[in-house]
Amino acid sequence: MPKSEAKKVFRTVISEQIKEQLMEEIFRHKYKPGERLVESALAKELNVSQTSVREALRALVAMGFLESEPFKGITVRSLSRQDLWEVYTVRAALESLAAFHAAQRITAEQIAELEEICEEMVEAAKAGDGHRRTLLNIEFHKALIRASGFKLILKLFDNLQFGSWSLMTGTFTSMDAIEIASRHCKLIEALKTGDPEQASRAASEHIIQGSESILESVEQAESSEIAAE
User: Fold this and answer.
1) Which CATH number belongs to the domain containing residue 137 in this structure?
2) pLDDT of residue 162
3) 19 plus 132 within the same structural domain
4) Which of 141, 167, 170, 168 has its CA nearest to residue 156?
5) Interatomic CA distance for residues 210 and 141, integer angstroms
6) Which of 82, 111, 202, 222 is buried deepest, with most CB atoms within 10 A?
7) Number of domains making up the chain
8) Listed residues 18, 51, 76: the one ending a domain
9) Domain's final residue, options 76, 106, 140
């Protein structure tokens, strides 16, 4: 790989890490709604280049975590339970559509791929490796979408950055990590039936049920803040 390309890949990885860290800190209210984020100050605090911080901030503005206004700079946007509910509702609709079509065309090789990812996910959960489990979770859902043959759904999944939302919110669920990983087996079984309606319903329920404890945590945090005021 040419040196210029290597630098580009490294910078992209760093900016993704910064983005994920800032997402979690915003969600945990280290940075309050309306607070201004200064590129140079963040770069110094995180000991990274301003270019990497700039890319991370740009991505967070696109996702709706931050707001960019002329003469005001970049500020933290208030994220509510409603915001997360919308994310999971849209994701459930997209993945239920993907599962509907995947059930009709999925191959034995694709089923084997999903089963392998699921096994690795359970192993990561048992080992207490939450970050790896979440990354495997994302790969599982992208593999399911690929099996549908719908390139547009996969493009929307990436453009809406559902993977990043999963990385950020995955640490806020009260559900047992092994249970989260094992739940994916039900999706595979639904796909194996070849019944598009059953697979679609299983995918939608998987997303919605998985989001319930996260939404409950956000609601509790909002109630605590109101009480503190």
Assistant:
1) 1.20.120.530
2) 80
3) no
4) 141
5) 13
6) 202
7) 2
8) 76
9) 76
Read off the pTM: 0.76
Distance CA 121, CA 73 (A): 40
Amino acid occupying residue 125: A
Measured CA to CA, the distance from residue 47 to residue 135 in angstroms comes to: 25
pLDDT top residue among 163 and 181: 181
Q: Which of 169-173, 208-212, 224-228 has the lowest mean pLDDT?
A: 224-228
Contacts of 170 (CB under 8 A, 6+ apart): 130, 133, 134, 137
Tell me which amino acid residue 184 is.
H
Tokens 């490796």, located at residue: 129
Q: Report residue 46 as tokens.
A: 């995180």
Cβ atoms of 167 and 134 within 8 Å: the answer is yes
Domain containing 7: what range? 3-76
Tallying the residues shown for the chain, one arrives at: 229
User: Does 52 share its domain with 102?
Assistant: no
Considering the domain architecture, whether residues 59 and 108 belong to the same structural domain is answered as: no
